[in-house]
């Protein structure tokens, strides 16, 4: 009777950040890349009048809010309200994505809950409607539905799937403790003001996707992708968490061909030339003492989907 959905984490291979808009968001040129590290959300029927309840397991489960702020619970309620039905469901999150790590773990759970509840309640909601509901939940939620590699514009929610060839091998160095996404965007604005460039959308040009990065993805060329990795939030994440510089250096010393902070951090992402090199970089990073743990994985992988079998 229950439905389990697997959903990927993301890394941003390009995160171009424009100026602060009047609505408190920043215009982005955000190239999302879905990786095999992921969460699973299981939706189980609940008695009428029970509402939406949540449980969570996994190494970081203690840091996951189980109240109304959880995006999985909000997703179930939003989908039910859209269809005019009661949101009676129990959601269990098996959490493997670092919490508040810059890998959109909370957003992934929101996307997974939309897909799981849609299947459990046999609603057959069209994908375009699910994407619109996802955008209401948060800027990174639509991409978790789509997966693969995509360019996100606007605040990240206007998506265009991008062509990609082959598999890329990644290592993620997980830090102790998370970083708040709004705090990192705010620090980015502060650093821009300090540098005298201004921080609003009239001061900062709207960012664009880097043609060299798009070509590297389409060609399946890890060395070219490594050379093109950029994150406009990286200096802000490093300003708030200076120790991340040592993590980035340790991964590069261990043979990673590219290194950057993942999204708003503090997880650091490393590109390796192949699967074997990724395992070696992960082992060296774990031994370096510059992170809590390091995980080798790959991508791109599909977005949130019901697990069969
Ligand atoms: O959309 P989401 O709820 O994930 O965004 C969390 C916060 O991150 C926003 O409230 C905002 O402070 C910041 N943000 C931003 N520009 C974006 C996306 C997020 O400033 N494009």
What is the gist of this entry?
The chain has 309 residues and is α+β, with helices and mostly antiparallel strands. Helices cover 35% and strands 28% of the residues.
Overall shape: globular
Strand tally, please? 12
N-to-C span: 13 Å
Give the helix level as a range of percent. 25-40%
Count of separate DSSP helical elements: 10
Order of helices and strands: EEEHEHHHEEEHHHEHHEEHEE
Structural class, from secondary structure content? alpha+beta
What features would you describe in this structure?
By secondary structure, this protein is α+β, with helices and mostly antiparallel strands. It has helices at residues 71-83, 105-120, 127-137, 141-146, 181-195, 211-219, 222-228, 234-240, 244-253, 275-288; strands at 3-20, 26-45, 52-57, 89-94, 149-153, 158-161, 168-174, 230-231, 258-261, 268-272, 293-299, 305-306. The strands form two sheets. Strands 1, 2, 3, 4, 5, 6, 8 and 12 form an eight-stranded mixed beta sheet that branches. Strands 9-10-7-11 form a four-stranded antiparallel beta sheet, sandwiched between helices. α9 (244-253) packs across α10 (275-288). The longest helix is centred in the middle third of the chain and has 16 residues, at 105-120. The radius of gyration is 19 Å and the shape is globular. The chain binds cytidine-5'-monophosphate. The site of cytidine-5'-monophosphate has 12 residues, from β2 and α5.
């Amino acid at each position: 009777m229950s439905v389990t959905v697997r959903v990927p984490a993301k890394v941003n291979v390009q995160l171009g950040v424009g100026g602060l808009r009047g609505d408190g968001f920043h215009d982005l040129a955000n190239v999302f890349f879905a990786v095999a590290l992921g969460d699973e959300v299981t939706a189980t029927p609940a008695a009428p009048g029970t509402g939406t309840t949540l449980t969570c397991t996994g190494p970081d489960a203690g840091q996951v809010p189980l109240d109304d702020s959880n995006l999985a619970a909000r997703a179930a309620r939003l989908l039910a309200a859209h269809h005019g039905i009661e949101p009676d469901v129990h959601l269990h999150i098996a959490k493997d994505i670092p919490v508040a790590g810059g890998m959109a773990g909370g957003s992934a759970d929101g996307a997974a809950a939309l897909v799981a509840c849609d299947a459990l309640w046999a609603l057959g909601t069209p994908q375009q409607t699910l994407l619109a509901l996802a955008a209401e939940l948060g800027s990174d939620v639509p991409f978790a539905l789509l997966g693969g590699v995509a360019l996100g514009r606007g605040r990240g929610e206007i998506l265009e799937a991008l062509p990609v060839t082959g598999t890329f091998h990644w290592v993620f160095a997980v830090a102790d403790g998370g970083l708040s996404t709004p705090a990192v965007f705010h620090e980015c604005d502060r650093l821009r003001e300090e540098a005298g460039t201004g921080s609003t959308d009239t001061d900062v040009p709207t960012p664009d996707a880097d043609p060299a990065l798009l070509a590297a993805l389409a060609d399946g060329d890890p060395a070219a992708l490594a050379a093109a990795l950029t994150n406009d939030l990286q200096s802000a994440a490093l300003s708030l968490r200076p120790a991340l510089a040592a993590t980035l250096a340790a991964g590069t010393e261990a043979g990673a061909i590219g290194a950057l902070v993942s999204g708003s951090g503090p997880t650091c992402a490393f590109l390796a030339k192949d699967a074997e090199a990724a395992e070696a970089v992960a082992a060296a990073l774990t031994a370096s003492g510059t992170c809590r743990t390091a995980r080798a994985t790959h991508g791109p992988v599909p977005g949130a989907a019901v697990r069969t079998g």
